[in-house]
Amino acid sequence: MGYLVDSAKASHLKVFGVVSIATPVLAFAFIALSIDTYPQFSWVNNALSDLGVVFGITASLFNFGLCASGLLTLILAFGLYRFLNRNVIGKIGALVFGAAGAALEGIGWAPENYRPFHYIFSVAFFAFIPMALLLVAAYFFSTRQNPLGAFTLSIAAFAAIPWVLYFIIRYVSGVAIPEIISALAASTWAIAIGWEMYKAGTADLKIGLEP
């Protein structure tokens, strides 16, 4: 019975790893497509969410991409909960990451013209991401996985610093640039941690198959 459970968990980790890698690819593909359909978009003057209220295909592409990415992020959060299960810090980090996924889903379902919900979901998403990463970094340090801890901590900083600078010096008129930098940082981490989950699942599965 233990063999079956271990094999199932290993297979699940591989699936979660693939989801983690695929999520940012899907998100940025739809962002790129929506920007391509709206030449008036300005990185300096707009927010990414402005794409979600442009009439026609632009809004459909952008909002669908956010909803799909939010759903995948929720699935990833469940995988993280299983992957970071050696202490409570990791579990809390996974839960906060899940809250970020729910907020991302909310951004897609409630575009800018749904006030104040859109603003609440947007602030929640960009706040929960660095919070979750800080907790996950603490987990890695507490379990003596220092390289992963240092990497996760640096990603948390890259996700937060653009917003700190924006509110201090307002280096752009819109928020698209801090949004994309923060999202790119989180996506880099998601791809890296997805690979770690995939490798862990593959290793566990090989162990389970050994006679």
Gist of the model:
This protein has 211 residues and is mainly α.
Major sheet attributes: none
Q: What is the chain-wise order of helices and strands?
A: HHHHHH
Uncertain segments: 1-5, 207-211
Query: What is the quaternary state of this protein?
Result: single chain
Number of helices: 6
Rg (CA only): 18 Å
Euclidean distance between termini CA atoms: 15 Å
Shape estimate: globular
- Overall mean pLDDT stands at 92
Beta-strand percentage range: under 5%
Instruction: Please tell me the total number of domains.
Output: 1
Query: Helix fraction?
Result: over 70%
What is the number of E strands? 0
Structural class label: mainly alpha
Textual characterization of the structure:
The protein is mainly alpha-helical. It has one domain (2-209). The chain has 6 helices and no strands. The protein has helices at 2-36, 57-83, 88-109, 117-142, 146-169, 176-209. Helix 5 (146-169) packs antiparallel against helix 6 (176-209). The chain is globular and about 50 Å long. The two termini are 15 Å apart. Mean pLDDT is 92; it is low at 1-5 and 207-211.
